[in-house]
Amino acid sequence: MLKVKNINTYYGKVHALKNVSIHLNEKEIVALIGANGAGKSTILNTLSGITPARSGSIEFNGELVQSLPPDRIVKAGISQVPEGRQVFKGLSVADNLELGAYLRFCAGESKEKIRQDTRHIYELFPRLEERRKQMAGTLSGGEQQMLSIGRALMARPKLLLLDEPSMGLAPLVVQEIFAVIERLRVQEGTTILLVEQNAKAALKMADRGYVLETGKVIIEGNASDLLENPEVQRAYLGKEKKEIWER
Amino acid sequence: MGIWDPANECMSREELEQLQLERLQATLHRAYKNVSCYRNKFNELKIDPDDVQSLSDLSKLPFTTKDDLRLNYPYGMFAVPLREVVRIHSSSGTTGKPTVVGYTRNDIKTWSNLMARVHTAAGITHDDVVQIAFGYGMFTGAFGHHYGAEIIGASVIPMGGGNTEKQIMIMQDYRSTVLVSTPSYAITIADRMEQLGVDSKSLSLKFGLFGGEPWSESMRTEIESRLGISATDNYGLSEVIGPGVAGECEYKCGMHIFEDVFIPEIIDPETCELLPPGSVGELVITTITKEAFPMIRYRTRDITSLDYSKCDCGRTLVRMKKTMGRSDDMLIIKGVNVFPSQIEDVLVAIDGCEPHYQLVIDRKNSADFIEIQIEVTENIFFDEMRLQRAFIDKVQKKIESVVGVSVGIKLVEPKSIPRFEGKASRVIDKRHS
Fold it and tell me: What is the mean pLDDT of residues A167-189?
């Protein structure tokens, strides 16, 4: 479904992604694991067109999308749930969700159809329905995360990019969010690329994973294998210290 | 017949190549970072692992040879600290030091799954009783088959090598359905059964998985008819992982190489140039998932060719032909790797032995046999038979201790061994003629 080959992304002079190649098959959950600054979020931002790659190719369902602007990428079927949720705090829950379908509305889809989807989001997140008239800023962190995911789903994405969905949430809420992600795959058949600090939890849910270190992929493998890999621990903990052993 | 891991064995070429590229790039980053041998080689050639942006870029990378492994004896090629290694194996002692290979927990898991693929392709299921007649110990063969059969759920009998009569007894009493051994040992078993008057029809044996040494199609026919089984070939080498690199399916038209784990290339052993698909040449293997012991462009020295055409079994993996020989002078005697140079070193070291010798390898009663013919010189001409006998014993013991297989010694007349101009061919292998 998604095929990324040799992308290089820079922040000014900083070479953030070095020849990164990854792929996602349909209905897969793939986790990106790595220390702070390893380039996990940059991959998501590059895929969604926010920080475009300077070179390399991104093929999504047969279409090359690496040089498209973010709105066209959303239209192609990739939606991002940004780090820190980024809900519109001064708008109601319902308005936040409808904004997620903005591009569909612009493309001429009927309000009725979009409302139907809103109802569907409420089925997924009953808590959002309870609070649909509340300002998003008054929601708890977990509820804001659900809203952020719901808003992304309103664009009817084929691929969902999730950036740190568990950040700053209480353990019980994290469990709830992860249960929702799992449900998305089962019920909606959504393909998910997941960036997580909580490597263990992410790998427990994911099918496969990539381990990043300083902008490079150093390991690709089944999630269950990665969980057992000592190098994953090292990369995740960001330890630069090398173990010395007798030669 | 079943396919153990259809997701990885039946991928489209396009999917496979994306996966291979990702894994190759990750492997190169790790190998460059953690193994000084690779880092130094790359730096010398001014190659950055980042330069590899497609599978065809692989051919720009330097080869790894057995010499590299020897120079880095014992742990220099490991890409993880020793405390993350859960298993150490080593290849049969070649000249000087043996080569040492290591596995992490995940490597053992990968290996087991690969062997489960090999066994499934050969027809093994959880209903089978698998008798493993490979030596356990430092060799990889027995362990690989053991894990693969166990993962499938078959009942494994870790019989080990040798003790043919007991092998036959166990085969009868435990109702073994699968024999895992070298092909020549299968024939030894068949011979002994004949001597003992055991009818193969009275056994439960259905399948044989044979490897560890090259064998011909006619040998397959012989084994199949004498033991009443379906015999398949499988390929591997300890430097790369052990058995589990490739295995035959029920169509017996070449061994499927597990390309999601290994990238094969065929090169001209003389010029080292990459050869187009289908050419006969030396097999070069790059591992793309191994953690403890990544191998980049390892020269296997085995001569074969690759067939990318579709196989009726449904696997999309490339097939390698039965190996047709070696690009070096290594001999495989009873599954043990023997280099003529090892024998020469011993002969030179023994007083008074001018290295005019010749190795004759033959199959006697279907077992490999190596005879070393040494020209008699004045120094080793003894009037007394007793002294001569003692000399032969000494040479024989010394060589056996170095190469690890039993040898025969024969003294021959001076100047009776043909002299060669240039490169001497001191080996006469009668097994394949």
Answer: 89
* Residue whose token pair is 């040799």: A6
Fold of the A2-237 domain? Rossmann fold (3.40.50)
From the list A19, A23, A221, which residue is nearest B18 (CB)? A23
Identify the pLDDT of residue A246: 40
Helix axes B217-227, B183-196, angle to 10 degrees: 30
Where are the domain boundaries for CATH 3.40.50.12780 in chain B?
1-327
Domain range annotation of chain A: 2-237
CATH code of B336-429, in short, is: 3.30.300.30
Q: Which residues of B touch A (CB under 8 A)?
A: 15, 18-19, 21-23, 25-26, 29-30, 33, 50, 53, 75-76, 80-84, 104-106, 109-110, 289, 291
User: Is B105 within 8 Å of A5 when comparing Cβ atoms?
Assistant: no
Q: How many CB atoms lie within 10 A of CB A78?
A: 28
Q: List, for residues B136-156, the tens digit of each pLDDT value.
A: 998 899 999 999 999 999 999
**Closest chain B residue to the Cα of A244, Cα to Cα:** B81
Neighbours of B388 (CB within 10 A): 15
Identify the burial level of B421 via C-beta atoms within 10 angstroms of its C-beta, where 0-12 means exposed, 13-18 middle and 19 or more buried. Answer: exposed
Which architecture does CATH list for B1-327? 3-Layer(aba) Sandwich (3.40)
Residue among B29, B100, B290 with most chain A CBs within 10 A, to mutate: B29
| A216, A218, A229 member nearest B106 (Cβ) | A229
B173: helix, strand or coil: helix
The DSSP call for residue A188 is I
Q: Which residues of B touch A33 (CB under 8 A)?
A: none
Surface-to-core class of residue B268, CB atoms within 10 Å of its CB (0-12 exposed, 13-18 middle, 19+ buried): middle
pLDDT digits (tens, 9 = 90+) for B169-225: 999 999 999 999 999 899 989 999 999 999 999 999 999 999 988 888 888 999 999
